[in-house]
Write a structure and sequence with these properties.
With about 230 residues, this protein is α/β, with parallel strands linked by helices. It folds into two domains: about 130 residues, HAD superfamily/HAD-like (Rossmann fold); about 90 residues, DNA polymerase, domain 1 (Orthogonal Bundle), CATH 1.10.150. The chain is built from nine helices and six strands. A six-stranded parallel β-sheet has the order 3-2-1-4-5-6. Helix 6 links the parallel strand 2 and strand 3.
Length: about 230
């Protein structure tokens, strides 16, 4: 068996971020009567929120904005896009989101089945995830993922994030292994795949949307079940 250690990404790879986030946002929309405040529909709200949220996360990863600016700014800016200037409401929505979203438990199809298969094959499995620690831990615990992983590396806790080689080296150090024994599975080409390459790891690019990639990868899959043909 070439690989002994498997490193997984969390969001968009195992934990279905889009589904879980959408559920939380829909509840926030209803509970705060955003339709009655001038936002035409949840779909219009969601359409505005998603790119604003993406921009805040990109700026956070580059050290331009803080954790609190991400949490509150994305909702404040979304409200302003509908000409609603209400920072108190934005704060309520922000707090609701970090409470509700991680407690949703949708996983990608066959995630549990594949994890059980890999566990039975005696692979040692670990998580490397970017994100806010308290939120990521809730996701991992509530969705039933915790028992599968020996080490869980969360960027906020270790002070470095993917694609920095340092977080991969740290993860391998905790697992007492080296790159030749490891493979990284993730959906984000720029963070998961490039980061793993820079650390000398083989990679599996989980690409259900069939996005274009810039360079060759060790493996590419569109469903998690395809991992059974690789590992």
């Amino acid at each position: 068996m070439k690989y002994k250690h498997i490193f997984f990404d969390l969001d968009h790879t195992l934990w279905d971020f889009e589904t879980n986030s959408r559920r939380a946002l829909m509840q926030i929309f209803d509970e705060n009567d955003l339709g009655g405040k001038g936002i035409p529909s949840f779909e219009k709200f969601h359409e505005k929120y998603v790119p604003i949220n993406d921009r805040y996360w990109a700026r956070y990863h580059h050290g331009i904005v803080s954790k609190e600016q991400v949490r509150h700014g994305r909702f404040n800016d979304t409200l302003k896009a509908f000409k609603i200037d209400d920072t108190a409401l934005a704060e309520v929505m922000a707090e609701s989101y970090v409470t509700l979203s991680p407690r949703n438990t949708a996983l990608f199809p066959d995630a549990m089945d594949v994890l059980k298969y890999l566990q039975e094959k005696k692979y040692k499995m670990h998580l490397i995830t970017n994100g806010f620690a308290e939120v990521q831990w809730i996701k991992i615990e509530n969705s039933g993922l915790r028992p599968f992983f020996e080490h869980i590396i969360i960027s906020e806790e270790v002070g470095t994030q993917k694609p920095d080689k340092q977080i991969f080296d740290l993860a391998m150090g905790r697992a007492f292994t080296h790159a030749e024994e490891c493979i990284m599975i993730g959906d984000n080409y720029n963070t998961d795949i490039v980061g793993a390459k820079n650390a000398g790891m083989d990679q599996v690019f989980f690409n259900p949307n069939k996005n274009r990639k810039r360079e060759a990868v060790t493996y590419e899959i569109t469903t998690l079940t395809e991992l059974k043909g690789i590992l």
